[in-house]
Amino acid sequence: MTEAFIQINNLVKTFDTPAGPLNVLRGINLEIHKGDFVALVGPSGSGKTTFLNMLTAIDSPTSGEVLVGGVPITQVSQGKLTKWRARNVGIVFQFFQLLPTLNVAENVIAPMDFANVWKAKERREIALKLLDRFGIKDQAQKTPDMLSGGQQQRVAIARALANNPPLVVGDEPTGNLDRMSATNVFELLQQLADRGTTVIIVTHDRELVRSVPKLLELRDGTIGETTLEAAARRRTQELRASKTRTATQG
After folding, report:
1. Rounded distance, CA 150 to CA 118, Å?
2. pLDDT tens figures, 98-152
3. Residue 155's CATH number
4. What share of the chain is helix, strand, coil (3-state, %, to 5)?
5. What is the DSSP code (8-state) at residue 164?
C-alpha cells in the first residue's frame, strides 16, 4: 500500500452553541490516496462541509491532525496557510463564485496572480489551455453572466486547476446544475482523478455517485466506507422516522 496523500488522525471538531458543545466530528481517522475520487455523503447537518473545511484548512480542528502531502496543515500558521492553500488546493463551489467583473479567462488567471506560481507572461496561455481542455475556450472573452450554469461550472473547475493543485475538493459542485451538465461535471472530475489529482466532493446526488469509486458516509460524527444501497436505506429510514415524529407531534 502506498503512503496516504491525506492522513487524518483522531480529528475532532466541536462548536460552542447556546445549548452547549456540539460535537460535529468525533475522532475521525482516515486515509485517502493520490488519485482517489471520493464522494462524501450523509444527512443534512452531519458536518460534511465542516469536514471539507478541515481538509482545506479553511477552519481548524478542536483537536487531532490533518496531513496533506505530508504537510501537517493543522500546525501551520494562518499566514502561511493562505499561500499553501492557493498552491495545493482547488475548490469548486456549488454556486461557481466567479468574479462577475472579469471575463472567463481572467477568472482563471486570478488564482495564478495570487499564488504567483507561473510566470506572468505564461498565465494567459495556461488559462486558455485549461479552458480548451474543458471545451469552453471559445467563451474566454465573455463574462460569467453570459454563460450557462454548466459552462460556468466548467470555468470554476478550470480556475480550481489554475495552479495545478494535487487536491481538488467540491462542496455540492453539481447541486445547481441540470442533469446533463451535472453528469458532464462528474466526468470531468473523474478525468482529473485518472490523471493523478485527488478529488473529494460532498454531494447529495444519489444518481451520480454510482459512478464514484469510493463512497464515504459521515454519520454521528464519524466516517466510514459504505455502499450506495446502504446509505440509501439509512436515508429512507430517517425520512420515515421523521414523518412518524411529525405525525405524532401533530
Report:
1. 27
2. 999 999 999 999 999 999 989 999 999 999 999 999 999 999 999 999 999 999 9
3. 3.40.50.300
4. 45, 25, 30
5. -
